[in-house]
Amino acid sequence: MEQHSKSESDTELRGHLNSLYHERQNPFYVRFRSTHPNVSFPFTDLPTSEHLEYEMLSEYNFFRILKMFRSDENPFVTEKHKNETMLVDHVDFWLNYLLYSPKHGGCNWLCRMKGTNKYVGIINLYELSMESHGESNRKGQIGYATCEEYRNRNLTSEAVRQMLDSAFGKLNLLHIYATTDADNVNSRNFLQKLGFRPTKEKHVDFLLQREDFYTSADATRINL
Q: pTM, whole model, 2 decimals?
């Protein structure tokens, strides 16, 4: 893992990673963008929730991911969030392929404490397809990661509910899936608390249907 100075400023880290990002852009994604110039799904910054604000991932803010997770020893946090080269390649894939793909659409949002510059984590929605978007099997898949300082404070639940609200509402999805490591008990319990149920479908572990979803306001009201 790369070594970084503790005195390294946000501007220095952002500049370094931004340069690396442009140096390593995948030629396939560059060609893909030339034939898919428009974002396939109506992704925007998510509305502010009780404690959090949300901004779409961009080449100018992804350095925040490395700041949040590069020293995180949690084995369930992907190495793509901890290693700068892996992160740059991962962001290239998200920003220049998934964001524009009509068959595998996806978006990431960084989460920060309301009215501050304190970043909490990242959430994402992906595997959206225009081919199924207008049919009864409209579906997507979610992911999430919260930095160590902000775990066990119900902020992950708040952020994921806000994303689900947009997925079921604005994007009009009917089914949301999630996968998690079999040994990640906390994540599996977290998903079930949100209303996800284990599924026997291939390549996914949990399913949440729109009729079973509680928004953040609903969850507060009924003390979930």
A: 0.91
